[in-house]
Write a structure and sequence with these properties.
Elements (H helix, E strand, L loop, with lengths): L7 E5 H15 L3 E5 L15 H5 L4 E3 L4 H13 L3 E5 L10 H8 L2 H4 L9 E6 L14 H5 L5 E3 L4 H13 L4 E6 L6 E5 L11 E4 L4 E5 L3 H13 L5 E5 L2 E3 L3 H11 L2 E8 L4 H12 L9 E5 L10 H4 L3 H12 L2
Helix pairs in contact: 1-7, 3-4, 8-12, 9-10
């Protein structure tokens, strides 16, 4: 009897993205990787480590420090039939490229009446928790989710990191791929032969019956920890990993809330006009007669990201999530 082929590996989230990029480069000669220090250095987080060595400087390209130029070049390459994967080195560095992304990348498909497709992936390490300096810990996902024509996603674990990157690269639409940098070193199982779920489908991480916690990216782990802590007090919390911020899988959120009657939305980004605001509004409209309490939101403060020594006070943690849970259950 032949031995079974082992396709599942335990790997860090950053390594899962590396493996996914490697698979894409091997599978499709039109896939290119571009960004600051992605080649010889392998990226500041080593996410692209070894790829230039194995695939050459013409496919893994070290660019100048010019984000607008990087994205503009990627747009031109996509128009010529390539599938560029662009790295923005840190979240706060994306704004020089914002005009290219919003004015050109997001609009070209509509402007050409569907004739032109722009299969560009823009990778952005985002969020805090690593003790970085200014402009290195932003959470700008709502800015991009607001823009029609862009898909916006964020994995929370290694398996999703691998498969969502594959799906993003294969998409004919531009995808903003937010990578939770403080989860880069968290390990998990990745089955490289699995059949992945839909890119924009939310996933129940932990079932529960008393309240729904919705999160994405770095906050999913915090919500799972909150659910475990609440269970010790006899509270059953369902944790839903949103995975996609545009489009949002409102149907899965609605299904969960109709069962639990309560919803708390958690994200690192500021609560004010954040992704949670749209979810709260939509679910209030859809589930008005099922809700036992107002939809509550937990997130960062409406203030510039603080110096590293204060970021633990800024970032929503276990206590702030559990406080919102208690307030919801008190209604």
């Amino acid at each position: 009897m032949a031995a079974e082929t082992v396709t599942s590996k335990n790997m860090a989230l950053a390594k899962a993205i590396n493996e996914s990029l490697r698979t894409a480069l091997e599978t499709d000669p039109k896939v290119l990787i571009m960004g600051e220090d992605v080649g010889k250095l392998g990226g500041v987080f080593r996410v692209t480590d070894g790829l230039q060595k194995d695939f050459g400087e013409e496919r893994v390209i070290d660019t100048p420090l010019a984000e607008s130029g990087i994205v503009g070049t990627a747009i031109g390459l996509a128009l010529r039939g390539y599938r560029p994967v662009v790295e923005i080195q840190f979240d706060g560095f994306v704004f020089p490229a914002y005009d290219q992304i919003v004015t050109q990348l997001a609009k070209m498909h509509a402007r050409s009446l569907g004739k032109v497709k722009l299969p560009v992936v823009i990778r952005i390490p985002y969020g805090g928790g690593i003790g970085a300096v200014e402009h290195h810990s932003e959470s700008p996902e709502a800015l991009f989710a607001h823009v029609a024509g862009l898909k916006v996603v964020s994995p929370s674990n290694s398996s999703d990191a691998y498969w969502m990157m594959q799906q993003a690269i294969q998409s004919d639409d531009p995808v903003i791929f937010f990578e939770p940098k403080r989860r880069y070193w968290d390990k998990g199982e990745v089955d490289t032969e699995a059949i992945p779920g839909q890119l924009h489908k939310a996933r129940v991480v932990r079932p529960g019956s008393d309240l729904t916690l919705v999160a994405y990216g770095p906050m999913v782990k915090v919500c799972v920890e909150a659910a475990a802590a609440a269970e010790e007090e006899g509270k059953s919390l369902e944790v839903l990993d949103l995975r996609s911020m545009s489009p949002i899988d409102f149907d899965s959120v609605q299904t969960s809330v109709e069962r639990t009657g309560r919803l708390v939305v958690v994200h690192e980004a500021p609560v004010f006009l954040g992704t949670g605001a749209e979810i709260a509004a939509r679910i209030t409209e859809r589930c008005f007669y099922h809700l036992e309490a107002p939809v509550l939101r937990v997130g960062g403060y409406h203030a510039p990201y603080p110096p590293a020594r204060l970021e633990e006070e800024y970032l929503p943690g276990l206590d702030r999530v559990l406080d919102a849970v208690d307030r919801s259950l008190a209604y």
